[in-house]
Amino acid sequence: MTDMPLRALLGSSDRDPGCDAGLDVIDEYCDTVDRGEPLSDRFREFLSHLANCEACREDTEALLAAIRDQKKDDNAG
Amino acid sequence: MEEVDDLCVQSANDALVAVLAKLDAFRGTARFTTWACKFVILDVSSALRRHAWRHRKVELDDAVWDRLPDTAPPALQYLQNAELLDILRRAVREQLTEHQRLVFQSVTMEGVPIDVLAERLGSTRGAIYKALHDARGKLRQVLADAGYEEIVA
Fold it and tell me: Which of A40, B75, B111, B115 is deepest in the core (most CB within 10 A)?
């Protein structure tokens, strides 16, 4: 297990498919999280990438926030 | 503030064009609104990061090591006074290509977003991340070879 400060600097040695592959599944991942469903193994590499990539982490959080805002608007309307 | 609003509107418009161009690629694995929103988020967030960094230089600056510990991110503050820091600094200098050094130091030590770096270097986010990933792999290997395999495993 990589020490957390070192992980921020050096990333993890887990398989990481990179930004492009991550952006392919970010929408499916966010919908799954939003529905509160368990994450299947197919997101394992995406999660490794999120741990290593601040930009993708920010974009994932932003997409999740947008989904939740949309739901609030739908419920209010 | 108005400038940022304009930037967001322009990016959202660009994203709308991108969504229309990609409609055939929608596979139904996510809700359509989530899929479409993805492109807006990516365009707007990237534009905002580039805007935030527009007046800041991005260059290979080895002096970043000498500014420790005052301006170092927590990861490097943790490493100060440790043998690890010497090994890491030497590995960055000796094992990485100049491009990898620029990417590694900019992203991990100076907090430059990868899409800002991609724009400045005429590259792509994916390619910059690949360079970072490869650099990190080399550095983990050096640390492992130096006997720190447990903490970089």
Answer: B115
pLDDT digits (tens, 9 = 90+) for A44-62: 999 999 999 999 999 999 9
Chain B residues touching residue A58 (CB < 8 angstroms): 45
Asked if residue B128 lies in contact with residue B118, where contact means CB atoms within 8 angstroms, the answer is: yes
Question: Could you tell me which residue, A19 or B151, shows the higher pLDDT?
Answer: A19
Quote the pTM value: 0.86
| Alpha helices (H) along chain B | 2-22, 32-52, 74-79, 83-95, 98-104, 114-121, 125-143, 149-152
Distance CA A2, CA B97 (A): 24
Residue located via tokens 């304009």: B6
Partner A, chain B 104-143, Cβ-Cβ below 8 Å: 108, 113-115, 125-126, 129-130, 132-133, 136-137, 139-140, 143
User: How far out from the chain centre does Cα A45 lie?
Assistant: 10
CB A11 within 8 Å of CB B136:
yes
Residues B130 and B91 sit within 8 Å (Cβ to Cβ): no
CATH number, span B62-152:
1.10.10.10
Distance (Å, whole) CA A9 – CA B84: 12
What gap in Å lies between CA B88 and CA B95, rounded to an integer? 10
Return the H-helix or E-strand segment holding A26. Answer: helix A19-35
Domain limits, chain B: 2-52, 62-152
